[in-house]
Amino acid sequence: MKITQIPWILIIFRFAVSPLIIVMWLSKVDGSWFLPVLVLAVLSDIFDGVIARRQHSVTEKLRLFDSYTDALLFTTVWFVILEKDSDLLLPYRLWLFSLVAVQLFSYIIPIIKFGRLPSYHAYTAKIWDLSLFVSEISLLCYHTAGIYLSMAIGMGYLSNLDGISISLLLPEWKQDVKSMFMAIALRRNRQ
Predict the structure, then answer these.
(1) Which of 33, 69, 131, 177 has the smallest CB count inside 10 Å?
(2) Cα distance between residue 119 and residue 3, in whole Å
C-alpha cells in the first residue's frame, strides 16, 4: 500500500460508517456506542485531507468523493437523529427546515452556473462540520440538543451563505475555495 492511498482508504472508511450507523440504530444500541464511531469518522475526515495535501496527492476526484461521502454521512446521521430523537428537534423545526432549504439552494446555484456540485472545502464549512459533530454527539449519545444544536444551526447558515457567495463570485468552477474572499481574489485576477 502506498501512502498516497491512505486518503482514499480514510474516505472509504467514512463511507462505510454510514451503513454502520444505520445498523447500530436498527439494533437499538446504547447511544454511547455512537461516540467512538463518530469520533473515528471525524478524524478520518480531518486526516484524509491533511495526508493528501502533504503527499501532494490531492485530485479533483478525491475531493469530490470526499464531499459526496461527507454528504452521505451527514444525511445518514441526521436521518437516525430524526428517527431516534425527533422530539428534541421539534423546537428547532422551523430553523432546521429553512437551513435545509438554504443548503439545497447552495447546491442548486453551482449546478445551474457550472453544471456541477460545489467542492469548496471552505473554512466556514469546516467549522460547521465541527459544530455538527458536537451537536450529533449531544443528540445521539446524551439525548440533549440545547446550545450545541443552536450553534450548529447558526454555523450552517453562515457556511451556506459563504458557499452561495463563493458560487456567485467565481467566474468558473474551482475546487478548494476557502472563503468568499478567496473567490473575490480569483474573480479580480481573472479580469
Answers:
(1) 33
(2) 23
- Reading the chain (191 residues) residue by residue, the pLDDT tens digits are 676 789 999 999 999 999 999 999 999 999 999 999 999 999 999 899 889 889 888 888 998 899 889 989 999 999 999 998 889 999 999 999 999 999 999 999 999 999 998 989 899 999 999 999 999 999 999 999 999 999 999 999 999 999 999 999 999 999 889 999 999 999 999 87
Q: Which candidate, 72, 71, 95, places its Cα nearest to that of 145?
A: 95
Neighbours of 30 (CB within 10 A): 9
50 CB neighbour count, 10 Å cutoff: 11
Closest by Cα among 76, 75, 86 to 25: 76
Residue pair 85/140 in contact by the 8 Å Cβ criterion: yes
Write out the DSSP string of 152-166.
Answer: HHHHHHHHHHHHHHH
DSSP annotation of 115 reads S
**Ramachandran angles phi, psi of 136, nearest 5°:** -65, -40
Task: Report the C-alpha gap between 43 and 86 in whole angstroms.
Answer: 27
Write the Ramachandran bin of 172: left for phi over 0, alpha for psi from -120 to 50, otherwise beta. beta
Architecture per CATH, domain 3-190, reads as: Up-down Bundle (1.20)
